[in-house]
């Protein structure tokens, strides 16, 4: 089965999910206070295949830098005081998180926060190749652009790990976005 057909099948089976966050300043990836994270809890029987991340610039003055993914290893099965994830505000199905079959009530087994997570300092997993120079709010009127980062099956999130989306530095720009992933039986 081709990758395209496998992806379509996952969507038809309700195993593809998308989650959104409203425009806000994303912290540097190594910060312990994160705003956007995807967590595959320990003990989950599913592995998450990252498909795409899309960004939307809103406003504010931005510093020169790029967007990256940070990795939190040994993320655990639940929020735990002293654990690698000690706070996590879950998104809500059909508000922040959506099944690929729009309106389908099946929720993902991975957890997503569009607002807040307290984690041990993540390590750099991947540069996303999206960079900005010093940017002012007025620069947002200088044109439109498409910003999708496609993963093409080369990034998987196994259980007991989490990824955060942040800046290589404190970018200061307000960015909203969507992350899309597919869940498959691990093994």
Keywords, separated by commas or semicolons:
single chain, mainly beta, six-stranded antiparallel β-sheet, 14 strands, 5% helix
Q: How does this model look, in words?
A:
The chain is mostly beta strands. Helix content is 5%, strand content 45%. The protein has one helix at residues 3-12, and strands spanning 16-25, 33-34, 37-40, 46-57, 65-73, 85-88, 97-99, 111-113, 117-119, 123-132, 148-150, 156-157, 161-167, 174-185. Strands 1, 4, 7, 11, 12 and 14 form a six-stranded antiparallel sheet that branches. The chain has a five-stranded antiparallel sheet with strand order 8-3-13-5-10, with no helix packed on it. It has a three-stranded antiparallel sheet with strand order 2-9-6, with no helix packed on it. 34% of the residues are buried. The model has no long low-confidence stretch (mean pLDDT 88).
Averaged pLDDT: 88
Portion of residues in beta strands equals 35-45%
What would you call the shape?
A: globular
**Euclidean distance between termini CA atoms:** 18 Å
Summarize the structure.
With 187 residues, the protein is mainly β. The chain has 1 helix and 14 strands; from the N terminus they run αββββββββββββββ.
Question: What is this structure's SSE topology?
Answer:
Layout: H1 3-12, E1 16-25, E2 33-34, E3 37-40, E4 46-57, E5 65-73, E6 85-88, E7 97-99, E8 111-113, E9 117-119, E10 123-132, E11 148-150, E12 156-157, E13 161-167, E14 174-185
Antiparallel strand pairs: 1-7, 1-14, 2-9, 3-8, 3-13, 4-11, 4-12, 4-14, 5-10, 5-13, 6-9
